Amino acid sequence: MKHGQISSKELTEFIRERATIEEVYARSMTKLAKSAGNFSQLGTFAPVWDVIKTSTEKLASCHLELVRKLQELIKDVQKYVDDQAKAHKKTKEEVASTLESVQTIQTTGVALQKSKENYNAKTVEQERLRKEGATQRDVDKAGVKAKKATETYKGFVEKYATAKSEFEQKMAETAQKFQDIEESHIVHMKDIIQSYTQSVDETHVQIGEVRIEFERNMENTSVEGLIQKLSDSKGTGKERPGKIPHTHRHTCHDGQITSTDQCFTHAKNSFYSSSDSEDDDEPRKFRVEIKPVAPNNRTQQSRATIDQLKASIGNISLSPPTSVLQLRMTSFDRNLLLQNSVRLPEIPNTHWRYTHSILFGLTLSSSQPVPLPLYLPLSLPHSISPPPLHSLPLSGTSRGPSPVTLASQDALPIAVAFTESVNAYFKGADPAKCIVKITGDMTLSFPMGIIKVFTSNPTPAMLTFKLKNTSKLEQILPNQTLLFSDPSQSDAHTKDFWFNMQALTSYLRKASEQNPAASYYNVDILKYQVSSKGFSSTPLNLAVYWKCDPATTDLRLDYHYNPESMLCPGPLSNVQVLVHVDGGVTNMQSLPNAIWNSELNKSLWKLNDISEKSDNEGSGSLRAKFELSDGPSTPTTLAVQFMSEGSTLSGVDIELLGTGYRLSLNKKRFATGTYRT
């Protein structure tokens, strides 16, 4: 027992030293993160320091969390050391009578030996006198002494037998107590080591997740993005400086004589202009900016656009450039023209460019007035590369985009499902030792019809969403193939994501090819881990008690519904409890009734829904008594399962951003993963 106390104290010192090392390392990492924040914020590399700083801070937090866990473990070990000392003191008092038995049998044994020697001596003396023919008086006198020695020896034999029996009984009891103490000591020490290992293992997992997040953030931090950020923050503007205007006299289409500036403004209002100055040294360049058309007028305006373009298309020629006009057109304009059999001339050196629009360089004859087509905007995701020029139907009749793309303005329906898994390990009846991990998955469901919309439209509307109520989430792992996010977002309660529409379209197309009969397709969007507060984060609190005797085993499980663990408390359904009992169970009595499977040696309870409206506000007990033929039983793991529809433990939610999509269904549920005692 003395060495057991020494081992406990030494283990305390070991864990304390490990906690000190982790704390020093964590503080060094925190200092390093602060230094990263003080590095140069100039140049294209500056945003990367924010990513490095955030990752380093998270690594420091992981190690500080390990320090906290180790300090809590030290408290548990210290409490065990104190309890161990009290138990040893109590045991010494209980086995004090055993020491008396030891002393008694020792003194009785010595006395017995002396009595035996005296008995032998007196008996031999009496026999010698008889053989030598001594007087009768001497023989009788020797006989009296021999008889007395015999009685004394007989008394010590009986006394020794009693002392021996008491000694063996007390020694057996004491030895059993000592063994129980040592077994309990070893089990407790192993539990401490297990908690220590669990804490270190959880920290390694967290560090691995931070590393993965850092790698993902660095992959998302592209060269183009860094340069663009610098350009946005330090740029002087997006428009080139204009040339110094020359004042000339011009004749506008209504015959008025004006200056150049007056005529060009006039031309903007009338859509027509021509110059009577044919002797300028350089061609005049017109810069035309056309505002978007309101969505509800698109059909009417499209008709006008077609008529205007048909009327003007004949005036476009490939003559040597005397005047250049850049028409700002989108793929919608181009498809609209092709669908209505408006033939575009083949234009050499035409280039495509994505600042959300496509530019066509068209050469115009300066002597012909040209009605300008309206600008119909269409947003394009930055991640899609422009198609090669040879694939574009710039002449002839096109099949055109699908009717949905051109005519329907209805928002496309999608559904979302949040599914969370709660894992808990309850150690006996001590809430402080409960280990909890909660994870979640977010899945989007797309109807079959949306695939046709995506595949027939080269630029589908960008699908973006906001993840809300994220303050309880420790980690968020998005699908890197499909999702983008900004790692520098500072709001702890929300996080924005947007889709790589090209990758999403490809994914859904493959899914439809593999299962063309499906009415919808599910896509795993992201996974996350919920911050837990141990025992208080479990929707169903558990405490188990075992009493294992050679002939019977008594089992009791106390449970309590915990509405505070849920944002919107709901009933726990499909509640089942399963436990394995060994020792050769011959009979089982349980309350409420359980099902015993003799082949698997397992007992199963199936319970009604548990909620605040249940009896005792969702608190209760399961009890069972098992009669054994080969006991005692060994306490084993008790597994519990349940589920809840309509809510989650994290409270996380989604909000669609932008237009083009609507949320048709938002389904939430959580269920048990590994939930045991």
UniProtKB/TrEMBL annotation:
GO terms for biological process: clathrin coat assembly; clathrin-dependent endocytosis; synaptic vesicle endocytosis. Keywords: Coated pit, Coiled coil, Endocytosis, Membrane, Phosphoprotein. Residues 232-255 are annotated as: Disordered. Residues 411-677 form the MHD domain. InterPro entries: AH/BAR_dom_sf, F_BAR_dom, FCH_dom, GMIP/FCHO2-like_FCH, MHD, Muniscin_C. GO terms for cellular component: clathrin-coated pit; clathrin-coated vesicle; plasma membrane; presynapse. Residues 1-226 form the F-BAR domain. It is a peripheral membrane protein. It comes from the Eukaryota. The keyword Coiled coil applies. It is found in: Membrane, Clathrin-coated pit. Residues 232-242 have a biased composition (Basic and acidic residues). PANTHER family: F-BAR DOMAIN ONLY PROTEIN 2, PROLINE-SERINE-THREONINE PHOSPHATASE INTERACTING PROTEIN 1. Belongs to the FCHO family. This is FCH and mu domain containing endocytic adaptor 2.
